[in-house]
Amino acid sequence: MYAIVTDGSISRYINYPKAITIGDVQYPAKIFSLWSKSELNAIGIYEVTFDDSNKKDDNWYNNTNQTFTYNASAGTVTAAYGTATAKAHADTLWTQADSDNGDLPFDKSIGDVKVEGLKTVLIKTIKSQAAGELQNTDWYVVRKADAGTAIPSAITTHRAAVRTKVAEMETAIINAADTPALEALYAYTEQEDGSVTRPLGELPELES
Predict the structure, then answer these.
(1) What is the arithmetic mean of pLDDT over 164-188?
(2) Looking at residues 156-166, what average pLDDT do you find?
(3) How many domains is the chain built from?
(4) Both 81 and 92 in a single domain?
(5) What DSSP character marks residue 51?
(6) In which domain, by residue range, is 93 found?
């Protein structure tokens, strides 16, 4: 990506090399590959440097739009993010103020969830994943109900282990103090034995 600087300010951007007109002069696209950096700078073309140092994981943070800055003394154009804002880890609720302002929907009450926080979203995801895992062995339960065939002990043990782990994961999520603490639960790190794990752990999978 390139920026065109005119009279000390960025006037427009070029997403890819192409023929351009600057002032009264038209330049072919090949100048981007044939000309040196200083030659491009001399006519006001600067390749944009992207600074992602402030950019954080979109799963946990709301990032700002990029700000493009021309530094005349350094001869650079930089695109940088501002300070990211952590997504709400707790639910936002409808309040009396919402009701007083006429913003409370007719089917909602004060104290109902207005916007789900990360904790609610993450717990719903885990429950959905657990349901998918249990679904693989639901037929054993149906068969027992229909035909009275006993459920193998390994299946019963696995299903109980899934439910136990779900409860542990939900507790860990609920007890997280803030968004960085939630993020830490999901951060994979390599252990001394070479395995890669996360503090939250994983749902048990049935061995084939």
Answers:
(1) 97
(2) 96
(3) 3
(4) no
(5) E
(6) 87-116
Assess whether 15 and 78 both reside in one domain.
yes
Q: What is the pLDDT of residue 71?
A: 96
Residues 6 or more apart whose CB falls under 8 angstroms from that of 148 comprise: none
The per-residue pLDDT for 206 is 87
Q: Same domain for 125 and 191?
A: yes
Residue with tokens 């000390």: 8
Phi/psi region, residue 148 (left: phi>0; alpha: psi -120 to 50; beta: rest), is: left
Residue 46 clears pLDDT 90, i.e. is over it? yes
171-194: average pLDDT? 95
Give the 3-state DSSP-derived string for 89-146, with helices as H, strands as E and coil as C. Answer: CCCEECCHHHHHCCCCCCCCCCCCEEECCHHHHHHHHHHHHHHHHHHCCHHHHHHHHH
pLDDT at 208 > cutoff 80: no
* Of the candidates 114, 65, 110, the residue with the CA atom closest to the CA atom of residue 92: 114
The contacts of residue 89 (CB under 8 Å, 6+ apart) are 117, 118, 119, 176, 178, 179, 181, 182
Helix crossing, 153-175 with 118-135: angle to 10°? 180
Note the pLDDT tens digit of each residue in 131-149. 999 999 999 999 999 999 9
Kindly state whether residues 31 and 81 are assigned to the same domain: yes
Do 130 and 198 sit in the same domain of this protein?
Answer: yes
Same domain, 164 and 188: yes
State how far the Cα of 174 lies from the Cα of 153, in Å rounded to an integer: 32
Partnered with residue 68 across adjacent β-strands are 79
